[in-house]
Amino acid sequence: PILYSYFRSSCSWRVRIALALKGISYDLVPVNLIKDGGQQFSAEFKALNPMQQVPALKIDGIILSQSLAIINYLEETHPNPRLLPQDPKKRAQVRMIADHIASGIQPLQNLSVLKQMGEKKMEWAQNCIASGFQALEQILQHTAGRYCVGDEVSVADLCLVPQVANAERFKVDMGPYPTITRINKALLELEAFKISHPSRQPDTPAELRA
């Protein structure tokens, strides 16, 4: 497999965690979203992913984009360890939380949106994340065990950790979100989350390396 990734991309990080958890080795091709006016806009990369976003994964003779679609493919082709619970209710809760983050929070504060915001980009990002986290904190109080849904790592957790990192980068006050904070801390102790961390990628700038 070949993963086209950017060290700081939260969507790429989700996929890196899934690959690490499932023990799938891959080659990484960095796509710098800032350098050269954004390498994702090159004709070469557009041929791989017409949406001009990372991640993209070349695997088993196909090219997949969209982090949750990639993770679902990995789940179906490499079922162990499972990232979707067997219980239908828990599985629905996992998907709900993943969608809440992947559709309801992350796109509103990603690079392409922030570029449109000019001087207000920090305030905009903080507001988008805070309103999403208020809802998420409430949901997790009903679903969480050690992790987002019960005590098994799931797709929901793969979405949570990169989003908390974004929140910290945009200086969101995490005080009102004790459940999110507790789960994030527990997940960051797991090896798959450590090795996939933005501070430990081949394309991480020297000043941001762990």
UniProtKB/TrEMBL annotation:
The main place the protein resides is: cytoplasm
Q: Where is the signal peptide?
A: none
UniProtKB keywords: Cytoplasm, Isomerase, Phenylalanine catabolism, Transferase, Tyrosine catabolism
The cellular location(s) given in this protein's UniProt record come to: Cytoplasm
This protein's cofactor list reads: glutathione
SUPFAM superfamilies reported for this sequence: GST C-terminal domain-like, Thioredoxin-like
Fetch the PANTHER family from UniProt: MALEYLACETOACETATE ISOMERASE
Give the protein's recorded name: Maleylacetoacetate isomerase
Q: Which organism is it from?
A: Gymnorhina tibicen
Q: Which gene encodes it?
A: Gstz1
